[in-house]
Specification:
This protein is an alpha/beta fold. Helices cover 31% and strands 26% of the residues. A hairpin with a 2-residue loop joins strand 21 and strand 22. The chain starts with 16 loop residues before the first strand and ends with a helix.
């Protein structure tokens, strides 16, 4: 992205980092590239939040594993998202109940809430349990928020009506926020300290029975777990009919003491979302639906149209005056039914991905389930996903 590239687009001129998320503090020491041949019971492809969760689960099970990534740890959506830590699936809870049944929906929500607490305990200071806000953009959404609140409470989950400076909606007190790249790098460091074999800049060129082949090395293994969100259908073309990658765009500012957002906010059914970090910087994403066909893409470069809409919203709705310092995009995958992919796509090759834009918690649960299943075990998460799909098939 060129400096001042928004000049003439009807928004304030800014100079922003070239497709670099605000989360990247450049404090990462690169991991080695895979060279030569290594052996393991399972090879995990992808070193984002979900791939690292799979490796963590395999270590707990005492299973030897190797992790590889085409880029760096957290270089994909895991380190380029909005940093929201939310219970439930991408669909709001009433839609989850409607589409997948009350019992599966409640079980899935409970498992994600438990995972939030587990990660917060494991990463104090990186995940902050601030609660989150869903704020209505209009009268119709205010009514939708009231229904959302009622269905959550009826299922026994914590939720409160909210009216405040951000607007009117609901408060979800058990949710939180994080610095996403710090989270995945903290997990990677901890795994490495425990002896995990992780390799960056090792793109997979071929997966055949018993082996994963990269540019300069080979992992000989019994099974493979591919834990990738965006572009999953490029790795597995057979998933193409029900998985599609989209581009999500964000920007961030210098410290903005003129505003105060103590909790992450979903606005307009979650199409716009923002958080303010402890250093007062603001990170904002959204407006994908304003160029929907263009944003169904595997490209991950910011565009003038969406960035212009984001900055207009930043100035006029959020009232932020601080200059924009970062603009970036990420690739995430969506499924036709709104449930993540968790299945053996080929013999002894499991796919875990396509989180519909909310992969921070769902992705960890999904990939840990893939690790358990790849070892011949069982998974409560997988059972409830199956129950949700079965209910949807009957409806």
């Amino acid at each position: 992205m060129k400096a001042n590239w928004l000049a003439g687009a009807g928004v304030r001129r800014t100079i922003a980092a070239v497709n670099l998320p605000i989360w990247d503090d450049r404090a990462w020491t690169p991991l080695p590239r895979l060279e030569g041949t290594v052996r393991a019971d399972i090879c995990v492809v992808g070193l984002g939040g979900s791939g690292l969760a799979a490796l963590e689960e395999l270590a707990a099970l005492g299973v030897s594993a190797v992790g590889v990534d085409a880029g760096a740890v957290g270089a994909g959506a895991a380190g380029r998202n909005g940093g929201f830590v939310l219970a439930g699936l991408a669909k709001f809870f009433p839609e989850t109940v409607r589409d997948f049944g009350r019992v599966p929906a409640a079980a899935i929500y409970r498992l994600t809430a438990d995972e939030i607490r587990r990660q917060a305990d494991a990463l104090p200071g990186i995940i902050r349990l601030t609660g989150s806000l869903r704020i209505a953009a209009d009268a119709a959404e205010r009514e939708d928020c009231r229904q959302h609140l009622a269905v959550l409470r009826d299922a026994g989950f914590a939720a409160e009506p909210y009216t405040g400076p951000e607007g009117e909606g609901i408060l979800l007190p058990t949710d939180g926020v994080m610095q996403p790249l710090h989270r995945v790098r903290a997990f990677a460091r901890r795994l490495r300290a425990g002896g995990a074999r992780l390799y960056e800049n090792s793109p997979v060129r071929k997966m055949v029975p018993g082996a994963v082949v990269t540019d300069a090395g080979t992992v000989l293994c019994d099974s493979v777990v591919v834990a990738v969100d965006g572009r999953l259908e490029k790795i597995f073309p057979e998933l193409g009919p029900r998985v599609r990658t989209a581009r999500l765009q964000m920007l961030a500012t210098a410290p903005a003491p003129e505003v105060d957002f103590p909790r992450p906010v979903y606005w307009r059914h979650g199409y716009e979302y923002w958080q303010q970090q402890p250093d007062r910087t603001v990170a904002l994403g959204g407006f994908r639906d304003h160029a929907l066909e263009d944003e169904w893409t595997t490209e991950a470069e910011p565009t003038e149209l969406i960035q212009g809409l984001l900055e207009k919203f930043l100035r006029e709705h959020l009232r932020v005056k601080a200059p924009v310092t970062h603009r970036w995009a990420a690739s995430v995958a969506y499924t036709a039914d709104g449930l993540p992919v968790l299945e053996p796509v080929r013999a002894k090759v499991w796919a875990a991905g396509a989180y519909n834009g909310t992969g921070n918690i769902v992705g960890a649960l999904n990939a840990r389930a893939a690790a358990q299943l790849a070892c011949g075990g069982s998974s409560e998460w997988a059972l409830w996903l199956a129950a949700a799909r079965a209910h949807a098939a009957k409806s």
